Description:
The chain is α/β, with parallel strands linked by helices. It has 2 domains: 37-184, 3-Layer(bba) Sandwich (Glucose Oxidase, domain 1), CATH 3.50.30.40; 193-227, no CATH class. It has 6 helices and 12 strands. The protein has helices at 8-13, 19-29, 75-82, 108-116, 192-211, 217-227; strands at 44-45, 53-63, 89-95, 119-124, 127-128, 139-142, 144-145, 153-157, 161-163, 166-168, 173-177, 180-184. Strands 1, 2, 3, 4, 6, 8, 11 and 12 form an 8-stranded mixed β-sheet that branches. The protein has a two-stranded parallel ribbon with strand order 5-7. The chain has a two-stranded antiparallel ribbon with strand order 9-10. Helix 2 (19-29) crosses helix 5 (192-211) and helix 5 (192-211) packs antiparallel against helix 6. The longest helix is centred in the C-terminal third of the chain and has 20 residues, at 192-211. The relative contact order is 0.22.
Amino acid sequence: xxxxxxxxxxxxxxxxxxxxxxxxxxxxxxxxxxxxxxxxxxxxxxxxxxxxxxxxxxxxxxxxxxxxxxxxxxxxxxxxxxxxxxxxxxxxxxxxxxxxxxxxxxxxxxxxxxxxxxxxxxxxxxxxxxxxxxxxxxxxxxxxxxxxxxxxxxxxxxxxxxxxxxxxxxxxxxxxxxxxxxxxxxxxxxxxxxxxxxxxxxxxxxxxxxxxxxxxxxxxxxxxxxxxxxx
Length: 231
């Protein structure tokens, strides 16, 4: 069993912040990753009002446009792969078709199965369906919504994937909500709360001035100096 420099409680704590706020904190903690490690295309959330999901990545790839041309990954192999243990998991599933989302892997049945296995949700460039029948509380951050599963089948599980620019691997920590998703380096997990608090304090100086009845550009200029560079 892999050792991690964080606990399940550390991951749970990060659910109180949305994904843009996590990215703000990462800019301080791991500034070298300021422009990498997150999705860079618009995505669709199964339900925007669900809280963020934070867990260990369980990666895989699919195709759906055509029937399998060779050996495929058995569904139970995938289900064993994603099953949560000490930490919750998130399925990170890359659609390899030239038009991702041609067929949906995610719907009523698979969301129900994955939720029972302890999976919090999925981040995918592919599609999902059955919007009114998805497992309650199971979040999907996907590329699009579609009606059919076509010939959807698993190609690989456990290898590296790329979801709209976010490169992820097995056991990466993923934070996702309706804005998209980001990889949190293991060593950054426990440092993020303090970094986010610092960013929030800096932002509050500016926001308070802007919300004040006696706002002036001069006061904004002074607030910007006091807050430091935040973006």
